[in-house]
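Batch manifest, entry 17 of 40.
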Amino acid sequence: MQPCPAARCLQLDLEADLRQSQQVRQHPLLQWICALPACTLFAAVACDESHASTASSATPQAAPSASAPVAKPKLACPLEMSRLGNYCIDKWEAHTVTVANPSVRRSPYEPLRDGERVAARSAAGVVPQGYISREEARAACVNSGKRLCSAKEWYRACAGNEGRHYPYGATQQSGICNTQKPHVLTQVFGRKVFLTKDSHYNNPKVNQEPGFLALTGANPKCVTPEGVFDMVGNLHEWVADDVSAALPKTIPLEYGEHWLGPKGSGIFMGGYYSSKNEHGRGCAYTTATHAPDYHDYSTGFRCCRDAD
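Output type: structure tokens
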């Protein structure tokens, strides 16, 4: 039997014979058959030279059983996100654009002004947004049609189903992720300065200090198997949860619950570029002592959403 070219299948004598009978054409079984690709259904009878004249008498294949399991379509995510089960997570830490003019990327080195509305974006090779609070990060995700990741979603994306300690595996490897840098505030302001939130922790100069904050994706081996970058180091990442009695059942707290702040405190995860496992290893690094409206040079975020 010779393979059936698509053009020839469209001109089968069988098709012409079937069109001669309106009654046959309207038969439900035939309508189901004709809906299938011609070359796959009729190749065995119509495209063989010896059967071309008798194809109309060939026995049609049986319809699939109604009880047969139907494969569910693979859930989809936008290109800038990776899929994990039934949700998507940004591949890169977020930067922001103004809602009024989404083509304008706002400065990643400054806190948001009162009433300023921004939307989150995720892309490789850009400076991620620091100086942002949880509530501002939550709004930025919503303004982009997404949501701030839950602690469970964030940890699952970083640690995988196997609960690895780092995005790339079980054991820490120096230099893979952007961590363990010197204390940047000392580098910028010196050792004898009394540091304040507004003048120092939120000073635009801090994240512009060379050698500290990296562009998104600049550490190509600091990536999960699903292609999510920089979940450990670079910037702390806010998650949607509050400190509560349920938190220890949601994510591992390697150093115990006594490290948690008051009930209702916000949570950011993964550490930043100067972290040295002070609050946990890698994916389990959890800072849960600041109010949800807190922000400084080290606080960033990424977004999640349900898969389509």
